Amino acid sequence: MIVKSIVMATALTVGFSLPALASDVHFDRINATVPFSEGGGSDTLIRALTPYLSDALPGKPTILIRNERWWRYPFYEPFCT
To answer: Where are the domains of the chain?
Structure first.
């Protein structure tokens, strides 16, 4: 019974992932928005992972990093007073 479940799960996983593997999507540029200021933990992490992520994606896209603080968005304005 366990072997049958494992075989079924593997078959479903492979079946659902084949269309994603067959797609030929190439990006020239990826915009990464970090919602915190420069030099923080999130910013440092994305900047450290960017070269590896660019090498791992097909076409080696350029990854642009933008730092946007959360209070610049208008729907957060009532909470900033």
So the answer is: 25-71
